[in-house]
Amino acid sequence: MIEVLRQENVTVIRLGVTYRSLDDDVLEEVGGLLLTKAATVDPPRIVLDLSETTFFGSTFIELLVRVWKRLRERGGTLVLCGLQPFCTEVLRVTRLDSLWKNYPSQQEAVASAASFSNGE
Q: Residue 33's domain spans which residues?
C-alpha cells in the first residue's frame, strides 16, 4: 500500500510493507506515482518515507534522481526519511546521500521540507 498525505504544505508519500523490496516488479507502480506527484504537487515538496523498505537497487536510484530533477525544475525539493541501514549504505556508497536530506522520522523530514526555499 502507498499512502499519500499532506502535512504542513508538504506531500508525504509513505511506502508500506508491500514495498519492502523495491525491485523491478513493483517499480512501475511506484515510479508512475512518484513521477506524477513530482510533476503536479503544489508546492513541489515531497517527503518519501521509506521506513518499511529494506532493499532497493540502481533502478530505484535512477527513479529517485528523475523525481528529484522534476521537483528541482519546479523549484522544489525531495526529502527522504526512515531509511533502513542497507538503503542508507547504498546511497552513501554511490555518494547520492549528498543530494537528498535524510531524517530518521517523518516529522523531522516534513519540518525540513516545509522550511525549504528555492534559494537554499
A: 2-114
